[in-house]
Amino acid sequence: MFEVRDKPEMVERALLVRIYHDRREEEEEASLLNELGELVNTLGIGVVESVLVFTRSLHKKYLCGTGKAEEMVQLARAHECDCIVFDNMFLPSQQRNWEELADMCVIDREEVILDIFSKRAQTREARLQVDLARMQYSLPRLTRMWGHLDREGGGGQGGGGASRGMGEQQIEVDRRLARTRIDQCKRELAEVRKQRNTRRKEREKMGTPCAAIAGYTNAGKSTLLNRLSEAEVMAKDMLFATLDTTTRAIELPDGQPLLLTDTVGFIRNLPHRLVEAFKATLEESVLADFIIHVLDASSPEVEKFYQTTMAVLEELGAGDKPIITVLNKIDVLNDPIKLAGLEVSFPNTISVSAMTGDGMNALLEKCSEMLADRVQTLTYRIPQSRGDIPGMLHREAKVLSTEYDGNDVILEAVVPASIAGRIAQFQT
Predict the structure, then answer these.
(1) Do 350 and 213 reside in the same domain of the chain?
(2) 198-202: which pairs have CB atoms within 8 A and are 24 or more residues apart?
(3) pLDDT above 50 for 304
(4) Banded pLDDT at 177 (limits 50, 70, 90)
(5) Strands 290-296 and 408-416
(6) Are 126 and 243 in contact (CB under 8 A)?
(7) What are the residues whose beta carbons fall under 8 Å from the beta carbon of 181, sequence distance 6 or more?
(8) Domains in the chain, number
(9) Parent domain of 382
(10) Which of 34, 143, 411, 424 has the fewest Cβ atoms within 10 angstroms?
């Protein structure tokens, strides 16, 4: 793994800065800066102060003017910070300019998210995706590692310039190694995706419907999966608590099986390379029969979070999927008037508390409605000589009742369409 710079081993005190140039968006900018604070806290870094910096136009060197830049550096030094964290996304040259001015570690929003992803990734696929995104981020910044070598002489005998400098040689070596690692990550990810596709095809042969649980990070997706499936997926009150795709099987009230997949949480201004790197994880949303979109009903920014998730789903090609909107954390909201307004604002809503279990039955019924055309409740008269038929119904459908009439077995069952056609002759 390549490091872009020599970071402090432990960053303890950080100044947070967001530079903006449109006063009409000040409230939104402040919200994004607060979100950056949550992201930085997730890394265990203390935030000493958060500052919104207004500039009439974005400058090429620092994004803001030199005077404002020097003011931010002096503020960081006054607080004895060891890092300045920007909510903006920098070009490599801009990041280098800030570090030269501040003489301390300077990182942007993308690097913060990459660091969180690196700590959270558990499966091989997630680690590969993070590794790929980090290498793509680091490649154009590698020159900063060897700036101290650029001045060293590398000429041949007689002062000729045929030989390259020592620093340049090391830069080229690192770039080549970085590109090699990027290619290796892409090959390994392609292999992992082939294995995923194989597993998915096996699921499709079984005809089991799938639902993807999607939503803004920290909306309660993993807690909801745990509640519905009695799984033990990591669920904590922090941003990006889980990055790995988890699939669990449940049974709906009408007897249908349903596979629930928890996907990585979305966030505003998610770096595009991370959307690209995580498409293998997020593609569960594209391939699902429907999406369970989880919203934190207690958040004052619930509408912005809804828009962010819908925009990412649209980018992934899942914008036209049937969606159940789940208003989660109603136990925290505790405001019936606001909740009623949210239920009107969003389509096809169910209000729940994944923590207490309130609303779970209504959510399961709604899931059954989404798949109503896939099953039928049918009654069969089956000769006892055809014992294979009741056996199949018990395995692949849900038998509601069993009675005996002479030499016949009378079965009522919830039957998937894939089975109904095969045994239609026994239907009453």
Answers:
(1) yes
(2) 200/287
(3) yes
(4) confident
(5) unpaired
(6) yes
(7) 131, 135
(8) 3
(9) 374-426
(10) 424
If you search the block for the tokens 């947070």, which residue do you land on?
16
pLDDT tops 60 at residue 322 = yes
**CATH label of the domain that carries residue 311:** 3.40.50.300
Q: C-alpha distances in angstroms, 275 versus 223, 265, 267, 311, 312? A: 23, 11, 10, 12, 8
Cβ atoms within 10 Å of 366's Cβ, excluding its own:
19
- The H or E element spanning position 120 is helix 109-120
Stated pTM of the model: 0.73
What is the C-alpha to C-alpha distance for residues 157 and 163, in angstroms, rounded to an integer?
A: 10
| Pair 266, 406 in one domain | no
CA pseudo-torsion sign 149, 152, 157, 159? positive
Distances 3 to 193, 203, 236, 253 between C-alpha atoms, Å: 28, 41, 29, 52
pLDDT value, residue 154: 42
Q: Are residues 243 and 390 in the same domain?
A: no
Per the listing, tokens 């392609």 go with 190
Residue-wise pLDDT for 252-278, tens only, equals: 888 788 999 888 778 887 777 777 666
Residues found in the chain: 428
User: Which string of DSSP letters, residue by residue, matches 371-416?
Assistant: TGGGEEEEEEEEETT-THHHHHHHHHSEEEEEEEETTEEEEEEEEE
pLDDT tens per residue, range 25-39 = 999 899 999 999 989
Provide the token pair at 199: 């597993």
Q: Write the pLDDT tens digit of every residue in 369-415.
A: 998 888 888 999 999 889 899 988 888 788 889 999 988 999 998 88
Within-domain flag for 259: yes
Q: What is the mean pLDDT of residues 146-163?
A: 39
